[in-house]
Design goal:
With 144 residues, the protein is mostly helical. The protein has four helices and two strands, in the order ααβααβ. It has one domain. Helices cover 80% and strands 3% of the residues. The chain has a two-stranded antiparallel ribbon with strand order 1-2. Helix 3 runs antiparallel to helix 4. It is globular and about 60 Å long.
Length: 144
């Protein structure tokens, strides 16, 4: 029964990889479309702050997708979870939220919560990298 489950998991993971690649491609095309549309809208080649924030948010979204794609590829190839990549995706996702967030519309508690999450993720990323560097181990954790 276990070989059947492993084969099923492998098929599903590969399907997810293809779907993720499609999502990254579509997000990239949309980023290009938004950039062209904003650049040719009068005043030509001048972007407003909202347009820039939208572009940066979309750009970070594509980076998140690429990082997830890479993590899925490593998982398929080696059955390993790339801890640095997972933390990097989380940091990029929070950074994206910070870029598109209007702090004037958020409560102090929300802003402190986002800051705490960013601090924790950054600290976690630093500790994982430092541990791997000190031990000379690869930047992944095996899934047995």
């Amino acid at each position: 029964m276990l070989p059947i489950v492993r084969k099923f998991e492998s098929i599903i993971t590969r399907i997810l990889l293809v779907m993720m690649a499609g999502v990254v491609l579509l997000a990239t095309v949309e980023l290009g479309w938004i950039l062209v549309k904003d650049a040719i809208t009068p005043p030509v080649f001048l972007l407003e702050i909202e347009e820039l924030l939208d572009l940066f948010g979309q750009f970070l979204l594509v980076l998140i997708g690429i990082e997830l794609l890479h993590s899925m590829k490593v998982y398929i190839e080696r059955r390993e979870i790339h801890l640095e990549a997972v933390l990097a995706v989380a940091v990029i996702a929070i950074a994206r939220k910070i870029v598109v967030l209007d702090p004037k519309e958020q409560s102090e508690a929300t802003l402190l919560g986002i800051a705490a999450i960013m601090l924790a993720l950054t600290l976690g990323y630093y500790l994982v990298r430092r541990t791997h560097r000190e031990n000379g181990t690869p930047h992944v954790a095996s899934k047995q």
